[in-house]
Amino acid sequence: MTLKKRIEHLDWQALEQSLWERGYAKTPVVLTPSECSKLISLYREEARFRSRIDMARHRFGVGEYKYFANPLPPLIQELRTVMYPFLAPIANRWMEALRVSERFPSTLDEFLLHCAEHGQKRPTPLLLYYEKEGYNCLHQDLYGAVAFPLQLTFFLSRREVDYTGGEFLLVEQRPRAQSRGEAIATEQGEIVIFTTRYRPALGKHGYHRVVMRHGVSTIISGSRYTLGVIFHNAK
């Protein structure tokens, strides 16, 4: 089955329900081991990237990541383009629930034109690499005035084989209450879809924003690669 068909055949109704209830959704395995290996192999091809970030230097954590340059590798371009039309209607329903006027177009090309109009032209998909003792502090991936409400992490390494530890972390900052965290164990080829900044939560007076941040717990052993796909571009 083609990658496009695998994405189309996901249970999007269940994924959306999870996004509303928890601010994230985990898919079944979407990428094949071969596709995961192909993506990991890109990490050594320096010409593919526009920048490399040493996380410790910036106190973001311990590890490194690289932002892809244009043109994006075909597999990553396909993932970004095919996933976006499924997420845009969800994003628009979130904006409506939160009484926010912003709406998102139905195709990625249209959305990237909107980013470019605000000076955000640099691509944001990235590969992340952690070794033993690596981790990623809680954060949000925002690069300018325009921000798509949902983003993706693709898990390329094999849990308990290539690495141990390294759970995907999400922390929800609840109004007038203690924060709530989740540690999500993932398998190779799965995707976590999650909020970029906040999710709608239903309260006594309708929906309100609940801010969320994401990160990665400490790698106990081995090494871990992931692909991050963010839909808004950077300045």
Quick gist of this model?
This protein is an alpha+beta fold and 235 residues long.
Keywords:
single chain; 235 residues; alpha+beta; six-stranded antiparallel sheet; 5 helices; 34% strand
Describe this structure in words.
- The protein has 235 residues and is α+β, with helices and mostly antiparallel strands.
- It has a single domain, classed as Sandwich (Jelly Rolls), CATH 2.60.120.620.
- Helices cover 26% and strands 34% of the residues.
- The protein contains five helices and 14 strands.
- The chain has helices at 3-8, 12-22, 33-41, 74-97, 108-117; strands at residues 24-26, 49-54, 61-62, 64-68, 126-131, 135-139, 150-155, 163-165, 168-173, 180-184, 191-195, 198-203, 206-216, 219-229.
- Strands 1, 2, 4, 5, 7, 8, 11 and 14 form an eight-stranded antiparallel beta sheet that branches.
- Strand 9 (168-173) and strand 10 (180-184) form a beta hairpin.
- The model has no long low-confidence stretch (mean pLDDT 97).
Which helices and strands occur, and which strands form pairs?
Layout: H1 3-8, H2 12-22, E1 24-26, H3 33-41, E2 49-54, E3 61-62, E4 64-68, H4 74-97, H5 108-117, E5 126-131, E6 135-139, E7 150-155, E8 163-165, E9 168-173, E10 180-184, E11 191-195, E12 198-203, E13 206-216, E14 219-229
Antiparallel strand pairs: 1-11, 2-4, 3-6, 4-5, 5-14, 6-13, 7-11, 7-14, 8-14, 9-10, 9-13, 12-13
